[in-house]
Amino acid sequence: MKKAFEEAYGKIQAPEPLKAETLTLMEAENKKRKPGFVWGCSAAAAVLCAAIFCLLFFQGRGAVYITSMEDGVHYDTVELEDGILYFQPERVTISVTPNAGSITSGEKTDETAAGGEEELPAEEVTAQSGGTLTLYQQDRMALPDIPEENWSYIDGRRVYVTVLMAETIRYQATFEKDGRVWEITGNGVTQKEFIDYLYQNIKK
Amino acid sequence: MGLSSNGYTVIFEEVMEKYGDMVYRICLTITGNPEDARDSFQETFLRLVRNQNKIKNEEHLKAWLIRVATNCSRTTVSSPWNRRTRGIKEEDLRKEAHQPRENELLAELQKLPDKYAVVLYLFYYEEYSVREIGRILGKKENTIKTQLDRGRRLLKQKLEEGGERS
Q1: Which of B57, B105, B123 should we substitute to test contact with A (largest number of A Cβ atoms within 10 Å)?
Q2: Binary contact (A114, B49; C-beta < 8 A)
Q3: Mind telling me how many Å the CA of A198 is from chain B's nearest CA?
Q4: Would you tell me the crossing angle of helices B141-165 and B104-111 to the nearest 10 degrees?
Q5: Which of A14, A115, A170 sits opposite B146 (nearest CB)?
Q6: Least confident residue range of A13-22, A90-99, A169-178, B82-91
């Protein structure tokens, strides 16, 4: 099979005019982007200053708070010593997870093993950043058994949100809705894109 | 050219030279025709320009390009315009000699659902492991194993059917 693939794909090359045209478009896009990039850096610096101010302001009063409001979604971040990030009310709590496995639990037949039933996404969308947001329905899975402080609450519903800080940042969330367990994964997406998608799916 | 937050520099010419063919192969595998592959190819590299500061290293760049090329091609294929005109394009393709129809494996691979075609391509041609493909495409390892297994069986079946027809 490997040899057949090498023969089939070895012949395919991107046409040189297409490469040249794309490079021209890339250079043009890059020039267009630069002023925005500079503004972006300035904005990032301003946010950093604000974060340092918040950090100094709240130091000595317990936790460290970084607050932001983006497009009507309110994030309050509390960073604790154990490396877990907590976001408070409406309250999205994101736990740093050590692996990218499923975050649901409960008895389940090994239906995702090779040759078994495939886990089909209910929806898959491409985020603006180029990453993928996927919604799965987990019929035979249950919500995980985790401490109360690790749960998020969105629209009055309990949600467990984790992030894998690997080479590709992977967000995962699981929640129960209409008697079913749902799992959302976000690969290569921004935190905001993931949380916005989570809000959309919980509230719809 | 741009500098990412961790000091990795994306040099457009080098990226194009090194990964242009790979991105084009993925786009062609999913879209099934050179016109759509061309659109997805350009969109992938334009997204790279917009996101160049997020690229951490060479390995991350390659994985990022594979993921974005896959997503862009899927978006192109599922666009309302594309769905409306698919019938016409397939007819055109039969007349055109652009697509390497003489390449039976590729022709049959393009008929498979793209999730199988991409996984087979990454496994057999790019020589990624199941775990690596899972990380790149954002799927669980078991899902990739299943897709690889089904993809292989479907491809074999289609190749056998093709052989019987001829």
Answers
A1: B105
A2: no
A3: 17
A4: 120
A5: A115
A6: B82-91
Question: Contact at 8 Å (CB) between B24 and B106?
Answer: no
Q: Is the ipTM of this complex over 0.85?
A: no
Q: Do A112 and A153 reside in the same domain of the chain?
A: yes
Is a pLDDT exceeding 70 seen at residue A88?
no
- Residue for token digits 């490469």? A19
- Tell me what the pLDDT averaged over chain B comes to: 80
- The residues in A 40-99 lying below 8 A from B, measured between CB atoms, are none
d(CA B119, CA A136): 20
Between chain A and chain B, how many beta carbons pairs sit less than 8 Å apart? 140
CB atoms within 10 A of CB A108: 14
Q: Work out the pLDDT band at A17, boundaries 50, 70, 90.
A: very high
User: How many folded domains does chain B comprise?
Assistant: 2
Residue B88 and residue B50 share a domain: yes
Q: What's chain A's average pLDDT?
A: 69
Both A81 and A35 in one domain: the answer is no
Domain housing A48: 21-62
